[in-house]
Write a structure and sequence with these properties.
about 60 residues, alpha+beta, three-stranded mixed sheet, 1 helix, globular
């Protein structure tokens, strides 16, 4: 099950803080990636993805 809150609330947070917050909010898988990373496109319920640049979350997407 996917937690119910706005993913954009993580943008601007330090990556470590965002990951910790996401886990406390119930995300099963938290993935942090550098900008431009090549990732598979399969949807995984319960996963939140962070694009992290210079230690700060700049983009968030689910699955």
């Amino acid at each position: 099950m996917t937690p119910e809150h706005a993913p954009d609330t993580y943008v601007g947070l330090a990556a470590d803080d965002a990951e910790r917050l996401a886990r406390t909010r119930g995300w099963n898988v938290v993935r942090s990636l550098p900008p431009g990373s090549i990732v598979t496109m399969e949807y995984l319920e319960g996963r939140i993805n962070f694009e992290v640049e210079n230690g700060v979350v700049t983009r968030v997407w689910l699955g």
